[in-house]
Structure formats: C-alpha cells, structure tokens
From TrEMBL:
UniProt record similarity statement: Belongs to the binding-protein-dependent transport system permease family.
Entry protein name: Amino acid ABC transporter permease
Membrane-spanning intervals of the chain: 28-53, 65-88, 196-216
Subcellular location(s) per record: Cell membrane
C-alpha cells in the first residue's frame, strides 16, 4: 500500500494532512467508488425484480419478496456484512472482503430501492395500463414501453439519494479489511495516533464526493423534470 512506503512520524499537522491525502484518494478510487457503482447497479437489478414480485398477485411470488425486504430493512447493514464475511465461513462458504462487501451492499440497496421502484410503478395512473391494453400491448410490453419510463422519472430523486448514501455506507467495508478510503485513514491514524486530523480529512473527502454527486443529481433531476407533465 502507498501509506506503507511513507514515514508519517514527526510530521506537522499540515504535512501529515497532505501526505495522507494520496493514500485516501487512491482508496476512494480503487475501492470506494467501484464498490459503490457495482453495488448500486446490481442493487437496481435486484430492486426491479423484487418490486415486480411485490406487485404480483401470486402469493408464492410476492411473499418471498416481502420476507427479503423485511429482513434487510429490519437488520443493520453492519450485521449483514458480518454475516456474509465472518458467518458464512462457518458453513464452508468463504468469500473475499471485496466480493463480500459487494454482496452485502447489493442486497441492502436492492431491498430499499425496491420500495422506491414499487412506489414509482404504483404511482402511474391505471389509465396508462388500460390505454396500452386497448392498442394491443401485452402487460410486459406495456410495462417496458409505457410504465417503467414514467416510473423512472419519478424514482430518480430518491434513487439518487440512495446512491449518495451508499457512498458513505461503504466506509463499513473497512471493518472487513477492504482497503477503501476510511480504511486508509484508520491505518495511517494507527501509526500516528492523530485520529482527529485523519478522520476529519476522511470526512472531508466523503463530503467532497457527495457534493459532486449532488450537483449531478440536481442536473439529472432538472433534465427529467422537463418531461413531467405539470
């Protein structure tokens, strides 16, 4: 790791701040950001499937989705992460830290985002379905061409907030030894004992990332808002 090649002893506060910036940024680029993007994309796939199961009229399809969402929303993300990384090896399933984090975050995002997607789909007027059926569309075709495009516009703001929250949640991956941004701060702080400075620096980097994402979120919302009837 980068920080291992640097001696942080006897540095002034400003020098320590500057020298620890690169390892933290690399941790963000190599692990935090990829972990966030991969988990969110996979989570959206899980969310869409779960949302469709939730609105199904069949109990055999709907109940497993209800149990999954309830279990994920009713337990802390940290517990889910520990079950996957520390718990599964007890039954012979060992997963490396990074994939473990992806699985945990994907399942977590999938459960919460499924409620957003489900609510967005249900918010579309029934007349949209009926109009699609009158021109010969099947339910699947109506969903793909009529309902989901409208539901996507409705769900953009809450899903964007979920994405930004996920960036911060990835700091929990440091507890299973993923060398992401906060893990780098922990490693350097353990060598220098300057916890306040380094954890504050990590917080500022998270803040900067989330601020940039918020700008993109606002731009995206304004772009799609033009197509929403008022």
């Amino acid at each position: 790791m980068i920080y291992a090649t640097i001696s942080y002893q006897n540095m002034g506060a400003w020098e320590l701040f500057l020298n620890s910036l690169l390892p933290m940024l690399l941790g963000a680029i190599q692990y935090t950001i990829p972990l966030t993007i991969i988990s969110f994309i996979l989570g959206l796939i899980v969310a869409l499937l779960t949302a469709m199961m939730r609105i199904s009229k069949s109990k055999l399809i709907r109940i497993p989705a209800v149990v999954y969402v309830s279990a994920i929303r009713g337990t802390p993300l940290l517990v889910q992460l520990f079950i996957i990384f520390f718990g599964l090896p007890s039954i012979g399933i060992t997963i490396d830290p990074f994939p473990s984090a992806i699985i945990a975050f994907t399942l977590n995002v999938g459960a919460y985002a499924s409620e957003i997607v489900r609510a967005a789909i249900l918010s579309i007027a029934k007349g949209q379905w009926e109009a699609a059926y009158t021109i010969g569309m099947t339910k699947t075709l109506a969903l793909r061409r009529i309902i989901l495009p409208q539901a996507t516009r409705v769900s953009i703001p809450p899903l964007s907030n979920s994405f930004i929250s996920l960036v911060k949640d990835t700091s929990l991956a440091s507890l299973i030894l993923v060398a992401e941004l906060f893990r780098q701060a922990q490693e350097i702080a353990a060598r220098t004992f300057d916890f306040l400075l380094l954890y504050t620096e990590a917080g500022l980097i998270y803040w900067a990332i989330c601020f940039i994402l918020s700008i993109f979120q606002n731009s995206l919302e304004k772009r799609y808002d033009r197509f929403i009837a008022k």
